Amino acid sequence: MASVYFLDVPENRPVVEVAERSQQVHVTKNGPYFEISAAEPFEIDRRATGARHAVWYSCVAGIRGFRIAGWDKNSLRFEIQS
């Protein structure tokens, strides 16, 4: 299973909450980070998070097993790294 890490700060919580709505992901706390794990690709819609662009483009703290397939003003897409 691959993971994405987001620092646990108030600005990132809406991003994590939107990701958590997807049935394919599992969210846990790992130290000061939210760890979002999944066995398949997933996407987060910025408009659903209400995040400003500055927060949006700085929200990812780390990835393991994923690669960022796309990151634009409205979408953040993760694919399993091959």
Beta-strand residue percentage: over 45%
Query: CATH H-level name... which superfamily?
Result: Monooxygenase component MmoB/DmpM
Gyration radius (Cα, Å) is 11 Å
Let me know the number of strands: 7
Uncertain parts: none
Structural class: alpha+beta
Strand and helix order? EHEEEHHEEE
Number of helices: 3
What sort of overall outline do the alpha carbons produce when their principal axes are compared? globular
Multimer state? single chain
How much helical structure, as a percent, in the residues? 10-25%
**Can you name the CATH architecture?**
Alpha-Beta Complex
Description:
It is globular and about 30 Å long. The protein is built from three helices and seven strands; from the N terminus they run βαβββααβββ. The chain starts with a strand and ends with a strand. The mean pLDDT is 97. With 82 residues, the protein is α+β, with helices and mostly antiparallel strands. The protein has a four-stranded antiparallel β-sheet, covered by helices on one side. Strands 4-7-6 form a three-stranded antiparallel β-sheet. It has helices spanning 13-20, 46-49, 53-56, and strands spanning 2-7, 25-30, 33-38, 42-45, 60-64, 66-71, 75-80. It has one domain (2-80): Alpha-Beta Complex (Phenol Hydroxylase P2 Protein), CATH 3.90.56.10.
